[in-house]
Predict the 3D structure of the following.
Amino acid sequence: MIGDVRGHGLMMGVEVVKDRGTKEPGAEIAARITEGAKERNLIVGRGGTHGNVLRINPPMCYRGEGYCVYRGSVALRVAGGEGVRSPER
């Protein structure tokens, strides 16, 4: 589950939690998300005190459309938990 989203410009931090009410850190879930993203050649880092914050920063060569695909792929992984899928065109 997503506890908080923060960032500035293209840089984003997505806090992954086990429970939205208690905000218990979801480091294991964040690790699965980053591994799934890596399998699809998407670079998503992890940070935060508990290792539960996804660090998303697309390559600077991306244009607007590419970033939408990148961000959408990461969002699908977070929402579905099964693997990163490219959005249908």
Summary: The two ends are 27 Å apart (CA to CA). Residues 2-80 form a domain with the Aspartate Aminotransferase, domain 1 fold (CATH 3.90.1150.10).
